[in-house]
Amino acid sequence: MLTLPELKTLLASPQHIVITTHHKPDGDAMGSSLGLYGYLIQKGHHVKVITPTDYPAFLHWMPNNGDVIIFTEQHEEAARLVAEASVIFCLDFNTLSRINELGELVRAASAKKIMIDHHLEPEDFDDYRCWDINACAAAQLVYEFIVNQLQDGELINKDVASCLYTGIMTDSGSFRFSSATAEVYRIAANLIDLGADQAKIHELVYDNSSENRLRFLGYCLSNKLEVLRDYNTAIISVTKEELAQYNSITGDTEGVVNYALSINGIRLAALIVERTDKVKLSVRSTGVFPANEICKKYFNGGGHRNAAGGASEKPLNDVVSEFKSILEDYKEQLLAG
């Protein structure tokens, strides 16, 4: 493992750096990646952000988004950059399976690998780790990495601040989750002082839906929402055909599960979506109920206590039935005050 002084020495001279993040990147994944990118290019490094897949259009406004390489669309160039890199930053994920086929290229690369993440149970593939499960976002950890560890806070300009603010805002549920501590608010305030326009960022992320996305949301809430009051649980399941009916694109299902969780008395909510290759689950909970335990134990996934995900090779109806059958084992927890 690298020590912090060794890492500082490494970054003191220009390096060929790749920054990557998890598949189907969200606001934190892209905010932390492009925020770190904006910092590193000021230091004179040769930097590329490579995402395993595409990501929502409502994140394309972010500074330096035009320089992002999407692995599934530019496979050869991405593979070359990973092979030639001297440093690879792995942001907002802690196991290489989270970056799909890109993971084995990163594993085989000779570059020093730096993990910046806040998820449970990290895989041992990195050479330096900035990891804290209590952080509200990877973007918070990137901020602390730049300011506290590298002591380069003066290089957080407007572009960097805007990206990091976006990551913190989205992963903290617009600062409403318990992970949004007083320290997180202080960081956010500093990012605003440094140029992040919080009102504009909120508008660009949350008030930037297509007509199709809003109609899809309305359809889900009107026709697909199932409330299981015996378990304080709500489920929304969506077929491939329903996605196609509304011309759904990447990002259109993001946040849908939160509407189910917002119902009075609901403690557990799941969005279960039939994709081309498998069925994907987004699971959310309130209080101390372990959404991540369900995803890890039954659906090959994991995540945070109140926000987790999983997947299954089974047909959609079977996955929905399996999810419902699991609830009996958790009934006491789900019905507890």
From TrEMBL:
DHHA1 domain mapped to chain residues: 248-328
Pfam families from the UniProt entry: DHH, DHHA1
Record-linked InterPro entries: DDH_dom, DHH_sf, DHHA1_dom, Oligoribo/pAp-PDE_c-di-AMP_PDE
Residue ranges crossing the lipid bilayer per the database entry: none
Domain DDH: 16-168
MF (Gene Ontology): nucleic acid binding
Protein name: Phosphoesterase RecJ domain-containing protein
Species this protein is from: Pedobacter soli
Taxonomic lineage from the root: Bacteria, Pseudomonadati, Bacteroidota, Sphingobacteriia, Sphingobacteriales
